[in-house]
Structures are given as C-alpha cells and as structure tokens.
C-alpha cells in the first residue's frame, strides 16, 4: 500500500514461448525467471497482492512456491494474438478493486527490474496525479538512424538518413516493457495501450531494461544478474 492506496501486481505468464520454450520458469542464477519479478514486487514494499496469470500448471506451481497468488488465464487470452490489455480488463473485472487502487503490470521477462522501480514509479504517479506510467530506457537505435530494406535497397526509415554521431542527436526513448503502472478505475474499456489519460515515464537504465525473448537475451540477463549478485 502507498498513500493509503491498494497496489496489485499482475504478472502475465503464458505457457507457450516460441523464442525460448519454457522461459518463464527457466532457471536464471538459480531462480525460476518468474521468481525475479515476484521478488521485485515483494521487495517494493508497496504491493499488497502479487498475482500470476497463467494457463500453464507448471508455471502455477512455481508461482505459488515463490509466494504469489495464481489466477487462471482463459485459453482465449493465451494465444499469440491475444492483447495484454484484454487480459488486464479480464482480471480487473474479476477483482473489483477500489477506485483509487493502483495496478502494476510486470512482465516476467524483465528480471532485472528492482523493487525500488515499482515503489518509485508508484510514488511519482500519485505525486503528479497521473493516470498511467510506463518504464522507459534510452533507445538503442535513434529513429533518425533507423533503416528499412525494400527490395534489397536500404532506405532511411524517417527519410532523414541521419549520419550524425550519437552524442549529437537529441535523446530518444523506448518502452522497456519492465513496468506499467496505472489507476485501476481509469483503465480504458477498449484499445491495446497501457498508457492513457495523463501519462508519465519512469526512466530506467539499460542494465535493468533487458526484455528476454530468446537465448541471447537470456544469456545477457544472466550475466548482468550474476554481476549484481556479486
């Protein structure tokens, strides 16, 4: 709880993964991947409930062992085409949270996010009167330096073909997927975005912004976590 407001963390964890099968419970530095997100929610000191939404019994067993509640994820919301926002609406309808409650949506593929990210983001959202907030990190490739390939021909994505050194370009930011936070009562009835109404940003460094999709990402995350743990 923070400033008298209930905080619920939802961790979505499907059983299917094409890039890295079984990744949500794959051991990372001796702990199932999903366990790091559960621990971050618990370590934040502001989260009252930690709920793992899953369609997979093996994930459910691990989630409970790590101290989280488990909410069944309907098959209709577990496919590759399912929208995360629809899953969120499904659980919000189940929970019937107080109007001033906050929800933190934490992808299990972001194991390097810290509890202080969740607590700090919640404090900033309340302080600024925002409806929603997302985690951002500096973009790896500036939009003006991005390219597309059409018929083997490279074309500047923005049409600018910016060849300036990185330090001479204005800052560009990317959603890192590690954290979405919002007022439960303000979540839109339609659409796919987790940023709505009065929005804010929680800036995170690159070493806490890794989003695991494949074995390369997993290897990088494990190396960073090993360094953190000393």
In words, what does this structure look like?
The strands form three sheets. A seven-stranded mixed beta sheet has the order 5-4-1-6-10-7-11, with helices on both faces. A two-stranded antiparallel ribbon has the order 2-3. A two-stranded antiparallel sheet has the order 8-9. Helices cover 27% and strands 24% of the residues. The mean pLDDT is 91. With 230 residues, the chain is of the alpha/beta class. The chain contains five helices and eleven strands, in the order E-E-E-H-E-H-E-H-E-H-E-E-E-E-E-H.
Following the backbone from N to C, one meets helices and strands in this order, namely: EEEHEHEHEHEEEEEH
- Radius of gyration using CA atoms only: 18 Å
Helix content range: 25-40%
What's the N-to-C terminus distance?
Answer: 31 Å
Low-confidence stretches: none
- The averaged pLDDT comes out at 91
Main beta sheet strand tally, sense and closure? 7 strands, mixed
Q: Tally of extended strands?
A: 11
Shape: globular
Secondary-structure class: alpha/beta
Q: What is the number of helical segments per DSSP (H or I, 4+ residues)?
A: 5
How large a portion of the residues is in β-strands, by DSSP E? 15-25%
Strand order of the largest sheet: 5-4-1-6-10-7-11
């Amino acid at each position: 709880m923070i400033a008298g407001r209930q905080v619920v963390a939802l961790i979505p964890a499907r059983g299917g993964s094409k890039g890295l099968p079984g990744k949500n419970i794959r051991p990372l530095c001796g702990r199932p991947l999903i366990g790091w997100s559960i621990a971050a929610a618990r370590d934040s000191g502001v989260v009252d409930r930690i709920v793992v939404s899953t369609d997979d019994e093996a994930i459910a067993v691990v989630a409970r062992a790590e101290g989280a509640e488990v909410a069944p994820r309907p098959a209709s919301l577990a496919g590759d085409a399912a929208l995360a926002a629809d899953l969120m609406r499904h659980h919000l309808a189940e929970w019937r949270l107080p109007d001033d409650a906050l929800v933190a949506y934490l992808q299990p593929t972001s194991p390097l996010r810290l509890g202080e990210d969740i607590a700090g983001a919640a404090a900033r959202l309340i302080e600024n009167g925002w409806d929603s907030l997302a985690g951002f990190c500096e973009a790896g490739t500036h939009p003006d330096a991005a390219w597309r390939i059409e018929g083997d021909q490279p074309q500047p994505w923005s049409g600018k073909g910016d060849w300036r050194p990185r330090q001479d370009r204005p800052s560009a930011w990317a959603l890192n997927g590690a954290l979405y936070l919002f007022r439960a009562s303000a979540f839109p009835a339609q659409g796919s975005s987790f940023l709505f109404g009065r929005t804010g940003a929680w800036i995170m460094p690159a070493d806490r912004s890794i989003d695991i999709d494949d074995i390369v990402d997993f290897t990088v995350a494990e190396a960073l976590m090993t360094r953190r743990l000393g």
